[in-house]
Write a structure and sequence with these properties.
The protein is an alpha/beta fold. The chain folds into three domains: 1-56, no CATH class; 72-222 and 269-401 and 465-506, Aldolase class I (TIM Barrel, Alpha-Beta Barrel); 225-267, no CATH class. Helices cover 36% and strands 14% of the residues. The protein contains 17 helices and 17 strands. It has helices at 40-47, 127-137, 165-175, 190-194, 197-205, 230-238, 250-257, 275-287, 302-314, 334-339, 344-360, 377-386, 398-415, 430-433, 437-444, 453-475, 494-501; strands spanning 75-77, 103-105, 111-113, 117-122, 140-143, 155-157, 160-163, 183-188, 209-213, 225-227, 242-244, 264-267, 292-298, 319-323, 367-371, 391-395, 489-491. The protein has an eight-stranded parallel β-barrel with strand order 4-5-8-9-13-14-15-16, surrounded by seven helices. Helix 2 packs parallel to helix 3. The protein is globular. The protein starts with 39 loop residues before the first helix and ends in a 6-residue tail after the last helix. The relative contact order is 0.15.
């Protein structure tokens, strides 16, 4: 069997002609001479290297398509019918509504979050409501790497950013509704660091949190981008990117002038951090006003996972987010999303023994968030249980953005009197349809007047997720999310048993 269909993907609208394909190659079993080439092979014959990347980005979200054989569905959730932990053994008090969901993240400048979820880095689609919804829900959110690409009016001087109005707007989207919970961070990859984005964010925009991105873009390496003209290639080079071939090379320019223009590709560098260089940069940013430092990791090699956690411990980093295979949101190379890295469940299993070792050594353990394909409350509860007591929160990127987009769209349709059929029975106006709107208005009073239903949509989705976790916690007679543990999981397969023991990698 195969866990993925090669040569056919929503990433680039490729498809095979035949219903009969060989699973290993993904090719049609009968390949005909006159085929127009709708599969990835055929499209690659025309588009070449571009087919390594999606051809339909823009106003879309992109995620992995691989049917990973290991995910959180290989566990069931336990339940108990006696007693209560974290609440009196009193039927009036030991209820789902009294399951505590607040967590505290960080050491030097602790951050309270009202829900056991965070919103990982993003800067596309309806990001204004994404960040506003995080503030209303009371949690952490992050402005994604390379946000400079989204501001057409950005100004650079000597390779450094000196005007970046979009960044201030993104920060204000959260700060406008900040209510004492959560934080908004500016994620920076190595190109952002070289361009002085974190310094600009702190000094000019009042940013308080910076997230270091290990790797680039789609969890691992930044995609190369085809530059359409020599002029575009030259601009990319002046903005600090690697461009191949070099548009300033006299021989390349001469060829281009003769009509033999090569394909120019720009590429962002892979970071080459060391413990020493990371420590120096973290202290430099703290010295100019950074209150919180976060790390963002993908499902890299287990030695890298441990190394990053130990660095985070030594530097007293507030939060480390690990992003497992299966998620996505940005400009994601398709094979990287499908074939790179550890699935989220495997990352969590690998984290626990590392954290146990840090604890035994008496070291500080940063808060940990796990992301990568989560969208439902049962998945979240299982991740919190498998990673207990070290996993503090679950990251929800694509689903939170979906909620932001749907909330905004339903508000528009309701104002036009065109509520979709599947929602008609719940109401005809935003006031009738959005059931959490009253809670938002109760929190903000007059300030609620300008809140978009996209932001309410994010808040509503996070409330649903949190309420679901509260149900599972109460089912296990645990009345605070900090009490969730591995004993709350029932392994259904051999893989599940090994993951639960932290021994999956040993057999």
């Amino acid at each position: 069997m195969s866990f993925i269909k090669n040569n056919e993907s929503a990433f680039n609208d490729s498809r095979t002609r035949s219903s009969r394909i060989t699973p290993c190659s993904g090719m049609c079993s009968f390949c005909v001479e006159g085929c127009a080439g709708t599969c990835e092979i055929g499209m690659s014959a025309v588009l070449g290297r571009s087919m390594v990347y999606p051809t339909n980005t823009g106003n879309n979200q992109i995620a992995g398509e691989k049917d990973n054989p290991i995910d959180f569905s290989i566990f069931n959730i336990n339940g108990r019918c006696f007693g209560a932990i974290g609440a009196p053994e009193d039927m009036e008090q030991a209820t789902i509504f009294n399951v505590g969901t607040e967590r505290v993240i960080g050491k030097r400048n602790p951050i309270k979050i009202a829900v056991p979820f965070v919103l990982p880095a993003l800067i596309k689609l309806n990001w204004r409501d994404y960040f506003a919804g995080a503030a209303i829900a009371g949690t952490i959110c992050t402005i994604g790497e390379h946000a400079t690409n989204n501001d057409p009016d950005i100004v650079r001087k000597n390779g450094k950013v000196v005007k970046f109005d979009l960044l201030r707007e993104a920060l204000d989207s959260f700060r406008k509704y900040y209510r004492g919970y959560g934080q908004i961070a500016v994620q920076c990859n190595i190109e952002d660091m070289m361009a002085g984005v974190p310094e600009y964010a702190i000094k000019e925009c009042g940013a308080e949190a910076i997230e270091f991105k290990f790797g680039q873009s789609a969890k691992g390496t930044q995609p190369a981008k085809l530059q359409p003209t020599p002029e575009a290639a030259l601009k990319a080079r002046k903005n600090g990117l690697i461009v191949v071939p070099d548009p300033e090379d006299p021989e390349v320019r001469a060829e281009a002038a003769n009509g033999n223009c090569p394909a120019f590709w720009s590429y962002s560098r892979l970071p080459m951090w060391t413990e020493e260089s990371l420590a120096a940069k973290v202290e430099e940013l703290r010295a100019i006003g950074a209150k919180n430092i976060f790390f963002k990791m993908a499902g890299f090699d287990r030695q890298d996972i441990e190394r990053v956690l130990r660095i985070a411990s030594d530097l007293e980093v507030d939060l480390v987010t690990f992003d497992g295979a299966g998620g996505g949101s940005g400009y994601s190379p398709d094979k990287m999303m499908n074939e790179f890295g550890l699935p989220a469940a495997c990352i969590v299993s690998a984290l626990v023994p590392v954290c146990d070792s840090l604890k035994a050594e008496g070291k500080y353990i940063p808060a940990i968030a796990i992301a990568g394909g989560f969208s439902a409350e049962d998945q979240a509860y299982k991740a919190l249980a498998l990673g207990a007591p070290y996993v503090t929160a679950v990251g929800l990127c694509r689903p939170a953005m979906a909620a932001a987009m749907v909330g905004k769209q339903i508000e528009k349709l309701a104002s036009e009197g065109r509520v979709p059929d599947h929602l008609n029975r719940f109401g005809s106006t935003s006031e009738e349809l959005f059931r959490e709107l009253g809670s938002v208005r109760a929190m903000y009073g007059d300030r609620a007047q300008g809140i978009s239903m996209g932001a309410v949509g994010v808040y509503s989705y996070l409330q649903k997720m949190t309420f679901g976790v509260q149900h599972f916690a109460a089912l296990n007679r645990k009345f605070d999310v900090s009490l969730i543990g591995r004993e709350d999981l029932i392994p259904l397969t051999r893989d599940a048993r090994m993951l639960l023991k932290g021994a999956w990698f040993d057999w």
